[in-house]
Description:
disordered N terminus; Herpes Virus-1; 6-stranded mixed beta sheet
Amino acid sequence: xxxxxxxxxxxxxxxxxxxxxxxxxxxxxxxxxxxxxxxxxxxxxxxxxxxxxxxxxxxxxxxxxxxxxxxxxxxxxxxxxxxxxxxxxxxxxxxxxxxxxxxxxxxxxxxxxxxxxxxxxxxxxxxxxxxxxxxxxxxxxxxxxxxxxxxxxxxxxxxxxxxxxxxxxxxxxxxxxxxxxxxxxxxxxxxxxxxxxxxxxxxxxxxxxxxxxxxxxxxxxxxxxxxxxxxxxxxxxxxxxxxxxxxxxxxxxxxxxxxxxxxxxxxxxxxxxxxxxxxxxxxxxxxxxxxxxxxxxxxxxxxxxxxxxxxxxxxxxxxxxxxxxxxxxxxxxxxxxxxxxxxx
Length: 344
């Protein structure tokens, strides 16, 4: 299959420039710009020129693989990249009558018009390229982050969606933050960019004061990051409307994957004026979004009427002090049950 200078043209009717990105695959066509019957050379000269062009193309392909270190699988993988959205293509892969391909999602976006040559796409499937994809085995796209796995082309996407080496989303909940990275990077990002409080130790406390506890229209939230057992944890506190009732919630998230988060437990306690409310649970991984954890009610939830009992006085001012600690569960190989590993 030949790809003649594949280029997505942004001036197609019905397309926005933001939707179509230029994506050139430089595969020179030796006959580009020359009509096969317009040459004034003798027949033998034409054959010699064609043979020379074929040899040059063969040498070019060999040089691409040898000089740059690009493997044939990588070259095919580039052919499987949609020239419009630049994502990997999966069946059905569409093509125009001239052999230019694109994914099924982009076929609808370009209004059935080839973005390369502007011919009508029709309903032609590129079965050859789909068969080639079935034979490919490629590394996970997070190999540079440590993933050693290699997968068939059509299984790779499913793995990457749940790969343990994929970057984490920023756990900051106060604004939409699109930053992703590994844990050390995110810790520095939270400290430097979001100005989050950082603490060390396995115990923590949070003090929340609100002059008018009946106003929760503007949700209040706070985030504290603390370092314990060589790991990082996010302590969230939020005031929000649960149905028609204002509530206050505190919960813990582990900066790592879910399997490792299950090695830890934590407790939260709020109380005053002879009253106390406690919660004990397992921290959730930051793979789960802040909203997902909050909406699942997996944490210490304090209703406003109950919270006012902790404040005392004339109940016109809300004062909450939430304390807690985290510990690591260690399996005793002799006794069997888990024992708590408390930090000093």
